[in-house]
Amino acid sequence: MIMNPCHTKKIVENIYSIKTSIVNMYLYQYADKYIAIDCGSNLEKVKENLLLLNINASDVTHIFLTHSDYDHVAGLPLFTNARVYLGHEELQMIDKTTPRFSAFKFNKPLGCSEFELLLDQQEIEIENVNIRCFATPGHTPGSMSYLFDQKYFFVGDAVSIKNGEIKPFFKFFVMDMKTHLKSITKIENVRKAQIVFSGHHGYKIK
Ligand SMILES: [Zn+2]
Description:
Helix content: 10-25%
Distance between the termini: 25 Å
Shape: globular
CATH superfamily: Ribonuclease Z/Hydroxyacylglutathione hydrolase-like
Bound molecules: zinc ion
Number of domains: 1
């Protein structure tokens, strides 16, 4: 199994990647604040990387989680000023209604006390940033992708990227492959997306 996240860096003018072990989280800058997409796999590593980028955790005002697997949420307690959002159908993964891999293993509760649940096609405006939600279930039931400002598409583990091509994620981690494949088609049909940002395979520029 090959995972190849990108390094911690500025990707375009207002988008940064942070790498912790085998996963990326992203920061989307607006004015002098930031919106995070996911939160990394290790709180201390997220802290170190924020320092490298000269970004204060307290300037992160919102967090959009693509799903609730531990490698995407571990840094949550760092961001005490942020409002947290995730897909409505992901609730079953954090309240122990639905097991993750098999009947004996559940995702942990989120490392924050409050969060807001999002629906497919919901739109959020944060100052002058427009975020459109796309339900992209399959990897987990509540996996959500986020289109920022009509062009930057953060899709988490709804895809992998291999040789510049969008591919399905590793079968072992996909809870419902049929639904996952439908979600990939849905992502590919968002043609205005100029860059697709993944959880474990960096990003793909159209
Ligand atoms: Zn992941």
